Amino acid sequence: MTALQIVLSAVCVLLAVWLVVLIVRDRQPDDYLYAALGLLEVGLVAQLVIGLVMVSGDHGGVNVAAYVGYLVGALVILPIAFVWSVGERTRSGTGVLLVAVVVVPVLFLRLHQLWGAK
Amino acid sequence: MTSTRTGFGRILVFVYGVFALAATARALVQLATQASKAPVAYSLSLFSGIVYIVATWALATDRRRVALVTIGIELTGVLVIGTLSHPSDIDRASVWSDYGNGYGFVPLVLPFVGLWWLWHINRPQRPMLG
């Protein structure tokens, strides 16, 4: 995985732990958590830009459509989760955010596999 | 007021949405870039994506009968395709191939969870988990 993907995966793990604590204690996410999610999203935008530069250069036969698909998927999942989550301010709403931060590293893994399969 | 989209249903709808997006996007990429390779498998991929889309919409809008039918199709699909497909067909895979092995077997578990949720919510009213 790229250095950025490793850093962002670590952020996802921290956020997942944070969200589990909130769910267990039945607390609502605060501004700090939303700020951290925002920071993660900034990282995902950076990853999209870097990824697009990578596939537009010498990529040696990587499946570009699939690669860009996963980049875009990683970009949209947090905003969708956020909107769906705030529709219900319960543990379940927080659980939606938890699912999202678990899925993001899985998408990184797929990106890594796609790049390695060239 | 309970609905298929509240409580645990909120998480379930999101997971279904993720799979709707993943299966449909995967099928479209497969059909767009290498349609001639395995048209039947890729069309099946697209079919599974559409099933997830309809199930997501039904669960999100409390349409229980539609949800039941689509989740039933989903369960049949993952069991039939899972039994017929082989792990070596990676290039021709759909979400349901090898019982959803490529997706951590979530496609196999998800219809059971969906059916449990519909059963749970249709029982006579009781205090619910938040």
Descriptive account of the structure:
- The complex is a heterodimer of chains A (118) and B (130).
- With 118 residues, chain A is mainly α.
- Chain A has one domain.
- Helix content of chain A is 83%, strand content 0%.
- Chain A has helices spanning 3-25, 31-56, 64-86, 91-116.
- In chain A, helix 1 runs antiparallel to helix 2 (31-56).
- The mean pLDDT of chain A is 94.
- Chain B has 130 residues and is mostly helical.
- Chain B has four helices and no strands.
- Chain B has helices at residues 8-34, 39-60, 64-84, 106-122.
- In chain B, helix 1 packs antiparallel against helix 2 (39-60) and helix 1 (8-34) runs antiparallel to helix 4.
- The radius of gyration of chain B is 15 Å and the shape is elongated.
- The relative contact order of chain B is 0.17.
- The chains are: A mainly alpha (118), B mainly alpha (130).
Give the SSE map.
The complex is a heterodimer of chains A (118) and B (130).
Chain A: H1 3-25, H2 31-56, H3 64-86, H4 91-116
Helix pairs in contact in A: 1-2, 1-4, 2-3, 3-4
Chain B: H1 8-34, H2 39-60, H3 64-84, H4 106-122
Helix pairs in contact in B: 1-2, 1-4, 2-3, 3-4
